[in-house]
Amino acid sequence: MSEQIYEFKNVTDILVLDEKQFERFLADFKEWFHFQKQARTEAEKLRELGLNITLADVIRWKDDDMIGVGKITIDVQKARDY
């Protein structure tokens, strides 16, 4: 199986998954949820120090045909100068 990447911006976006994919997604989503809660708390602390970190409000999920998260990938982008 190829490791397809899905992006969920709206709750209804998950409806493209079949039942087996959905079960794998739920297990991964639990880890995403805990990671996001912690990351947002840490980002707020850094904001108080003057460092602005923005976390995406989308979920990008790679269906690797396994339950559980093997790794989390973080994309870093330099802020644009306006």
TrEMBL record:
It comes from the Bacteria. This is Uncharacterized protein. It comes from Haemophilus influenzae. The lineage of its organism: Bacteria, Pseudomonadati, Pseudomonadota, Gammaproteobacteria, Pasteurellales.
